[in-house]
Design goal:
Keywords: Amino-acid transport, Cell membrane, Membrane, Transmembrane, Transmembrane helix, Transport. GO terms for molecular function: transmembrane transporter activity. It is found in: Cell membrane. It is a multi-pass membrane protein. The chain is flat and about 75 Å long. It has a single domain, classed as MetI-like fold (Orthogonal Bundle). It contains 9 helices and no strands. The chain has helices at about 5-15, 20-45, 50-60, 65-80, 90-115, 120-125, 130-160, 175-185, 190-219. Helix content is about 80%, strand content about 0%.
Length: about 220
């Protein structure tokens, strides 16, 4: 067993310098995913055609690994349409993870909307409140409150799923870990740093998520 602590001591800061990129992608995509999920949850009720299109989108993105989606969009589509090579890997990551997150959140938000007390909606209708105002002032706020813990969990899930962005050249922790491994031909030490960093980061985010959930219960 050849454990070299000097690799960790010298390169741990380089490896964890990939954390801001992970959090940036995760935060943006969680927000975009929420918007996509909210939009699709309402749009699928507009017509049968929209419902089928949205159902197909959800089925495709929930039925394939995010790694495959990322490579397919960034490399597969770019090989078919060369003009897409002008799109940066960062933008591809945002597109793929937002669509993937939106597919999962669409079902979550739909359940949140269906879980709203119908009495409040009926009371608003009886008072002559328009459908637009009911959706804006009653349905969306209550649905979002119902699903906010799930959105926080989706953000945490995204931080773990983004571990694959190094495959398209983005400088996350795995990218730097692979660079250190290539230099020393040692896998364990850099991966140990990544392992511990991900655990601590997601533990903190999980505690924050539970705090938000408690606040929602008592507010």
């Amino acid at each position: 067993m050849n454990f070299d602590f000097t690799i960790i001591a010298e390169y741990w800061q380089l490896i964890i310098s990939g954390i801001p990129l992970i959090l940036e992608i995760s935060f943006i995509c969680a927000m975009m995913g929420t918007i996509i999920g909210l939009s699709t949850a309402f749009l699928r009720r507009k017509s049968k055609i929209l419902e089928k299109v949205i159902a197909a989108y959800i089925d495709i993105f929930r039925g394939t690994p995010v790694y495959v989606q990322l490579v397919f969009f960034c490399y597969g589509l770019c090989s078919l349409f060369p003009s897409l090579n002008n799109v940066s890997p960062f933008v591809w990551a945002l597109i793929v993870f937002s669509l993937n997150s939106g597919a999962y959140l669409s079902e979550i938000i739909r359940a949140g909307v269906e879980g709203i007390d119908k009495g409040q909606i009926e009371a608003a209708k009886a008072l002559g409140v328009s459908r637009k105002d009911i959706a804006k002032d009653i349905v969306v706020p209550l649905a979002f409150r119902n699903v906010l813990p799930a959105v926080v969990n989706e953000f945490i899930t995204l931080t773990k799923e983004t571990a694959v962005v190094g495959v398209i050249g983005l400088h996350d922790m795995m990218y730097y870990s692979d660079a250190v491994t290539s230099k020393f031909y040692s896998f364990f030490e850099p991966l140990l740093v990544v392992f511990v960093a991900y655990y601590i980061m997601n533990k903190v985010l999980s505690l924050l998520g539970k705090w938000v959930e408690r606040k929602l219960k008592y507010d």
